[in-house]
Amino acid sequence: MMEKTSLSILKTYWGYDRFRPLQEEIIHDILLGKDTLALMPTGGGKSLCFQVPAMMQDGICIVVSPLIALMKDQVENLRKRNIKAIAIYSGMSHREVDIALDNCIFGDIKFLYLAPERLYNDMVQERIKHMPVNLFAIDEAHCISQWGYDFRPSYLELSHLRSLKPNVPFLALTATATPRVVTDIQEKLGFRSENVLSKSFRRENLAYMVLPEENKMGRMLKVITKIGGTGIVYVRNRRETQEVARYLLNHGISADFYHAGLDMQTRSKKQDAWTNNQTRVIVATNAFGMGIDKAEVRFVIHLDIPDFLEAYYQEAGRAGRDGKKAYPVLLYQQADRDELWESIDQNFPDFQYIQQVYHHVCNYFQIAYGAGQGMTYDFDVVDFAKKYKLEVIKCLSAFKFLERDKWLSLSESVYLPSRFKFEVDFQELYKFQVQSVHFDPLIKAILRIYGGVFDFYVAINEFELAKKIGKPSEEVVRMLNLMQKQEIASYIAKTDSPQMQFLQARVDYKNLYIDTQFIAVRKSHKEEQVKAIYGYLDEKVCRSLALQRYFGEEVEEPCGACDLCLVKAHKAGLDESIGKKIQYLLLDSPRTLHALIDAIDMGSEDDRLRVFRQLLDAGTILLKEETYHWNAL
């Protein structure tokens, strides 16, 4: 049998002949059993860094990610390559999770994708103890750090993995991390020794542009027309996605909008149309982009200032993955700067507000005092906020701090198809078919279409079943529910909602503990992050240099491609031309300052005077009897 090498695995399962930069070094360290933090830019091929070494070893790789849609995509892609993988995330029933975990212990599953909030569950932690784990891969690892731009309290539970499997290495992956966050990730995950592998944060083919602009829509149109190709326009809210897409369509540019409020099917359709170049421009909130590997994106335009430089770098980095010239463009007004600072209060509500939100959400689900622990519900945050006249963003911030102190957990919105499993054996099911003839066509259709339905939950499509047996889909749903009621089967209807889980029983006002000191520290850090964005907007030297220095990379060489470098190059060329003109004029005849400046036909008066003073200070021009002469020596 051929020896499993990283290259043979890469070729066999993914069809690539060679690795991208840094991938081999990361894989090498993982195979040596080293805890590793890998800093790789968006689109750098992070997933192969854990998938390849996991395939080279016996046992299972546990991948933790907060991005449920991305988890589902990766599981699907692995299965297409005949690699066994499953995912456990919010919204799955206790029984589904139980079966999936059993398959990881007793089956030949190679990858278990796990949402971080699932580690609140004692059953999950207990089962991991019995799994033959070869690697823990932590995606979006910056989420574990309170100094990161997307801190998620559920990530703090990852420290339990070290106690469950002390000898299993961690691979922490992120596209963006400041030096402080790099240190914090390693501490929080209990790295046995420091080990950071990183690529430069410079993207040589990206020409960053930051432009103050009163008419942002008009400038956006000019940028898109001039650059050509496909791109992304990022905006702050859902309403703006539709308005901007409509504006582009009205000006003859193929565009569509995308945000998290759309159902999964609609989102997939819009994403596919853009990926396949049927739509030229997608106008989106920051919900768009994770896991999308479209290489030929020529521009990414931000019509609003992002909340964090990390988020901006990641979103801007979706341009030019093919290595060709691309343009991340940020358009802003003074009002945008002011709004960013004012938004800080919304992200850090006071203790009384958090108390209020907690009791409102308990009442919303009619949870009695002393009850609710472990309960999970579909949760519509917009409906909740409307009912209690609360601001959505401030509500979500309150939930984040309630989660950190382990009162509840709110997952992202995720589409879960309907799931079905027979709970009786084949003989019992046959008896039921004989006794209940009405159900026979439906049962036969399920057995024909879906394999493994006696062993685990399978995703089903009620409309497809209805078509097969010639009945309305409502009747199929009714029959599925009846089979569940008679304990013949388990049926879980589809959902496209975030999941609210109560981690503790409901308490009264005086027993609700919230770490207000932590909130104060986080607020102070957020103020620093906003100031860092202001610093980037006001940068005078080079945009790429500013980003690299923010991420702790010591560099001196400007990129030569950003708006600041282009202005500087233009200015240097202009200065040289003005200097040559001054030389020509003064060699022709000495002149007064006024006559000299008036005779130059390029640049502004300030430009001419500046170059004149430089030449005078250098001794190249001399003043003699109130006229200026060229010093030929």
UniProtKB/TrEMBL annotation:
Enzyme class label: isomerase
Keywords: ATP-binding, DNA-binding, Helicase, Hydrolase, Isomerase, Metal-binding, Nucleotide-binding
UniProt xrefs under SMART domains: DEXDc (SM00487), HELICc (SM00490)
Gene Ontology cellular-component terms listed: bacterial nucleoid; cytoplasm; replisome
Source lineage: Bacteria, Pseudomonadati, Bacteroidota, Sphingobacteriia, Sphingobacteriales
Pfam families: DEAD, Helicase_C, RecQ_Zn_bind
Stated name of the protein: ATP-dependent DNA helicase RecQ
Record domain Helicase C-terminal: where: 219-365
The family this protein is said to belong to: Belongs to the helicase family. RecQ subfamily.
Helicase ATP-binding domain sequence ranges: 27-195
Domain of life: Bacteria
PROSITE patterns recorded: HELICASE_ATP_BIND_1, HELICASE_CTER
InterPro entries: DEAD/DEAH_box_helicase_dom, DNA_helicase_ATP-dep_RecQ, Helicase_ATP-bd, Helicase_C-like, P-loop_NTPase, RecQ_Zn-bd, WH-like_DNA-bd_sf
Any GO MF annotation of the entry: metal ion binding
Catalytic activity: Couples ATP hydrolysis with the unwinding of duplex DNA by translocating in the 3'-5' direction
E.C. code: 5.6.2.4
Coiled coil, from the record: none
GO biological process: DNA recombination; DNA repair
